[in-house]
């Protein structure tokens, strides 16, 4: 379970503070694969970043004892001057992966980079870099994966593979997903959180959530 | 399996700082000269400058060899300036890594600071080695005191770097002001001239500067005959401690909001 306790979040702007959430109390239950639904600008990405711990609320807390991934396939942590292997080790160390050698093996098997794995990332083609980033996140066993429109990674073949890997993952652990593709959401998720006017509503049944979302 | 271990906050810090440190060493120098340049360049610089300075006074400055006099000044001012500028820049430079919740700005600052410290230790070793090879005589009466002054200066530089790095996320213009005031530090910190070379009634213009204190004190620690006129160990360590306190206070209060920017 992830507990949002009295969370207030705003962004400063020239027009004063733009509030996303005000004194929000909400429990995100465990054991569900949850889709976050909401219109543009309703705070989906903000909620996502709060869950990931990439940002912090202005007041209040996000409390959990789950191990949560960073946004899957986010490639901003990959350094272009380091090789794929060095980047893998860096990410593994930061996340506290127990067995770095096994982690490397899983990443290299999944990313299909071959020899390029030991070359600097700067020499990779534009499709290979997100593949490495995706492999790095999916090769760690988290309790909860945060997925942001992930299945757009790489070519058709890799996309299929990524989708399958995430589906496998969503059986043993859980996912929280942001996407505008309803077909994708139906494939991964069983329940939904609908965001409207800074309020969160949990729907145990995905279809019910989608109906409420489309009625907004 | 590649499960993640549940780690205490200290262990996470240690792991993250180590990972960032290793990344720094790997990517800090990407050309052929590599990491050796970080040591060779300042050693050369110090040699050339002290050669010219030595012409001015025939090789002795207030009872210590001019080369040693210059080396103390140059090493410390360079250690301060480089540690200060790189640590303050590292707050913004590592911004993309804050997407990992384990990485906090202070880890980036500490990793960068440690990296600079290691480089500077090698610079010192390089200078000592060169002095040994050209048979230059020198004396170090109180090595422990020198180490303490050097570490104090390092803590001061990292604290200042943390303060300015944090401020620059709120006010980007701060980096320009930082450049403006760090330039003249080279000339007012007693690198080329001792505080004793200035008339006493103008000391107040210079002796507010803790770097000057560190440089003069460490010369005195090496050669007691040099004297410690106008500088105070108490003042130096009080400034270091207050700066560290201020930096940690500001950091504790503002880092979470700072990384949203």
Report on the structure:
The complex is a heterodimer of chains A (216) and B (261). By secondary structure, chain A is of the alpha/beta class. In chain A, helix 2 packs across helix 3. Chain B has 261 residues and is mainly alpha-helical. In chain B, 68% of the residues lie in helices and 2% in strands. In chain B, strand 1 and strand 2 form a beta hairpin. Chain B is globular and about 65 Å long. The two termini of chain B are 37 Å apart. The chains are: A alpha/beta (216), B mainly alpha (261).
Strand content of chain B: under 5%
Shape of chain B: globular
Order of helices and strands of chain A: EEEHEHHHEHEHEEH
Task: State the domain count of chain B.
Answer: 1
Q: What percent of residues of chain A are in strands?
A: 25-35%
Give the termini distance of chain A in whole angstroms.
Answer: 27 Å
> Biggest interface and its residues per chain?
A-B, 36 and 30 residues
The helix/strand order of chain B is HHEEHHHHHHH
Give the N-terminus to C-terminus distance of chain B in angstroms.
Answer: 37 Å
Largest sheet of chain B: 2 strands, antiparallel
Please provide the count of β strands of chain A.
Answer: 8
Low-pLDDT runs of 5+ residues of chain A are none
Strand order of the largest sheet of chain A: 5-6-3-7-8
Keywords for this entry:
heterodimer, A: 216 residues, alpha/beta, five-stranded mixed sheet, 7 helices, 36% helix, globular, B: 261 residues, mainly alpha, two-stranded antiparallel ribbon
């Amino acid at each position: 379970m992830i507990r949002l306790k009295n969370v207030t979040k705003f962004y400063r702007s020239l027009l004063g503070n733009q509030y996303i959430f005000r004194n929000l109390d909400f429990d995100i239950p465990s054991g569900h694969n949850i889709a976050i639904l909401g219109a543009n600008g309703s705070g989906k990405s903000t909620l996502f970043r709060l869950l990931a711990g990439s940002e912090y609320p202005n007041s209040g807390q996000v409390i959990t004892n789950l191990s949560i991934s960073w946004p899957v396939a986010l490639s901003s942590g990959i350094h272009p001057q380091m090789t794929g292997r060095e980047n893998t080790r860096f990410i593994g160390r930061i996340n506290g992966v127990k067995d770095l050698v096994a982690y490397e093996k899983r990443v290299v098997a999944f990313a299909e980079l071959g020899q390029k794995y030991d070359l600097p990332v700067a020499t990779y083609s534009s499709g290979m870099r997100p593949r490495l980033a995706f492999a790095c996140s999916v090769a760690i066993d988290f309790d909860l994966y945060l997925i942001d429109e992930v299945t757009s990674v790489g070519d058709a073949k890799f996309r299929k593979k990524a989708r399958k890997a995430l589906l496998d993952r969503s059986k043993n652990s859980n996912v929280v997903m942001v996407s505008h593709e309803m077909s994708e959401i139906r494939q991964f998720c069983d329940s939904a959180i609908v965001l409207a006017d800074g309020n969160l509503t949990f729907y145990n049944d995905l279809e019910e959530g989608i109906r409420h979302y489309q009625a907004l | 399996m590649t499960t993640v271990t549940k780690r205490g906050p200290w262990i996470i810090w240690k792991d993250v700082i180590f990972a960032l440190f290793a990344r720094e060493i790997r990517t800090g120098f990407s050309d052929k000269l590599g990491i050796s340049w970080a040591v060779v360049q300042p050693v050369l610089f110090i040699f050339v400058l002290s050669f010219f300075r030595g012409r001015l006074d025939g090789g002795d400055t207030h009872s210590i060899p001019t080369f040693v006099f210059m080396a103390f000044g140059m090493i410390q001012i360079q250690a301060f300036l480089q540690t200060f500028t790189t640590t303050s820049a590292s707050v913004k430079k590592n911004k993309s890594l804050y997407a990992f919740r384990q990485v906090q700005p202070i880890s980036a600052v500490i990793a960068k600071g440690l990296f600079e410290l290691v480089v500077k230790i090698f610079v010192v070793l390089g200078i000592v080695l060169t002095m040994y090879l050209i048979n230059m005589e020198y004396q170090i009466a109180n090595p422990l005191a020198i180490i303490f002054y050097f570490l104090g200066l390092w803590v001061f530089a990292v604290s200042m770097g943390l303060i300015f790095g944090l401020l620059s996320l709120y006010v980007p213009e701060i980096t320009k002001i930082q450049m403006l005031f760090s330039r003249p530090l080279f000339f007012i910190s007693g690198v080329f001239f001792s505080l004793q070379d200035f008339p006493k009634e103008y000391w107040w213009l210079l002796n507010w500067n803790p770097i000057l204190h560190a440089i003069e004190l460490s010369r005195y620690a090496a050669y007691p005959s040099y004297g410690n006129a106008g500088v105070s160990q108490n003042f130096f360590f009080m400034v270091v401690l207050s700066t560290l306190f201020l930096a940690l206070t500001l950091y504790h209060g503002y880092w979470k909001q700072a990384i949203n920017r």
